[in-house]
């Protein structure tokens, strides 16, 4: 499929690469680039805020460090023990003496920490409402080509304009107080007319305060609730398997503010965390309307919910009909007991709907949630002993179906770290907002064991690897029998100096799915997939960097229906002066189809990013520019275009474009009021 001469030239270009200076996006990119999924921008907002208001090292708590997702619980406990034994650090360079903290880890956290002392709490109480930072952000974007859905002659068409609009006001004083409003209109939605007579299609607000005497946290408005290891509920950022093989534990506070524009998977109401030495109690209550489809059951004459609609789009008559059709209330709490290195939590969560949920009747959905009420309970723990950190959670649902997840991270040598996760989740176990370290999106119908290792054989060298073996005892979508699979990854990183970094990653997986052959008797067949990715990073000089990537994908290699994929890009990042900076990427991709698609992390305007999938054949380029007029007013602009080869139309459904190009334009303005 790929001509050798083209491959050689693109590989050669891919080696002319370089690294950027540390920014808030870099850790996020390293954690998401293998996942093929997008995450709301709440975490990216917090990282940028930490760059401007860094963590005070000598007054930091475990929860402060947990904001940096790439730190393991073992590393956090090691730092706290070091500071307790030896007292406050006198220099940032002393972090090199903390056990289990390597140079790569310290380099990642440097933009987010400071040795300066924070204000005392009594001073913060007087100033948190007046000395924080006010900011207003306005973003607009659109696809420049006309898409099929904007044809008013269609029976089901997009009623609004193709513009996406985002308005966000935010106030934050350090980590003590945060409040704000987010409003968004998606492309195709109306604005101050029709179904959106109130202007934006989605509004979100939140007030979030910390450290008010014995009240550790008070949340009003929109917030997320995070329990245990995600078997019951985890709504904040939680990564699945990736090259950072030690990042296998869910960690963070129970309550977190929600300021993203994603229109599902959050709570709207009140939450409180009360603390008293060893005991911590969290309680919350939430009510909001959610999207879904319903119909009247002819046997009972009751209206039942057939499915939730999590897309968040309300453009066509059919999408608008699903909007806010279900009343949804949830409430629950967490009781936490802490004693030295041991933490025990008891979790309870209750859901109630205005209409009964009903499964779709398919065999794979046999154990789906039904009825107007659902509840989950769990116990979870974490325990640190020397260089070992163990954690786990055991959960049950309304009908006492069981789920278990247990894991550990351990430093067996200054040059070797290992991680393990075992999960055994019954096929009938169900939860609404679960997000655990599992192969399935939701923690259900799965048994498996994961093992990861990091080896640092010499200065500048690091090897990350994991293997995961899993099985699904019951049926799944597109899998009409119990099935199994495996996944493995190895990444080698070489950094001979501060200017150069070479990264080579190999990933393989094999899952059983229904055979593609048209037969009356369904059977399963293997679907092996392999990928090879190479990055080389090299810093040219301050303010000017280059980076690039070459990636190859093989799907069903040497078997019927096989596909191959190839992608290469080169990108330049530059800072002209304090006012101007940006980046430019040129990318080529060529795949045999959707099964050999390749996901790529793309930089965007402030607080935004994307991980699109590329398939078919074509070119992609984008330009991002940022201009800071002064300390208060900043502008961002993004222009991106994808040009496909030999295609008369691109896209699907109502998003089809007649032509071979798709062009995106985005403009953003941020104004700091103080």
UniProtKB/TrEMBL annotation:
Residues 1-19 form the signal peptide. It comes from the Bacteria. SUPFAM superfamilies: RuvA domain 2-like. InterPro entries: RuvA_2-like (IPR010994). Keywords: Signal. This is Helix-hairpin-helix DNA-binding motif class 1 domain-containing protein.
